[in-house]
Design goal:
Blueprint lengths: L3 E5 L4 H15 L9 H9 L3 E7 L2 E9 L5 E8 L8 H10 L7 E7 L3 H9 L3 E11 L9 E10 L2
Parallel strand pairs: 4-5
Antiparallel strand pairs: 1-2, 2-3, 3-4, 5-7, 6-7
Amino acid sequence: MKNNIFILNKINGEIINQLVNIYFSAFSKFYFRNWSFQDFIDLINNGYSIFYSIDNHKVIGFAVVSFNKDFSEIITIAVESNYQRKNIGRNLLNYIMSSAEFEGNFILDVAIINTVAIKFYEKFGFKKIGKRHSYYLISEGDNLGHKIDAVVMQLRLY
């Protein structure tokens, strides 16, 4: 599947609406708070880089990254559920890692119950370096109000 990756660096309502839907599609099974249109506007306004992948004029996945001098942080990578396991996330991460802003050191948090994501990052060489206790809040379902631990992972390329 051929896809193209772009950077969202200004407010585009059509694209942001698709990002909101992708986030819901990718993470609704965990019952975390869904990201809103305003959340994406806040990310853009605060200097986060949003990379998104398009296939047939439709956004199918995205990544949010904060590039810093000492390390860069992956806030999230999300792929629309119908496109998961089709290398979209891999392509996004490879693109980010080849970005001029990337200094060779990534850090990220993953919900401990998101074993697919943990294995995905491990394939890229990310190592578990710690844990954040009670990091993710469950916002609906039977476990409403409970908190889930996060695994802190790091990739050093230098």
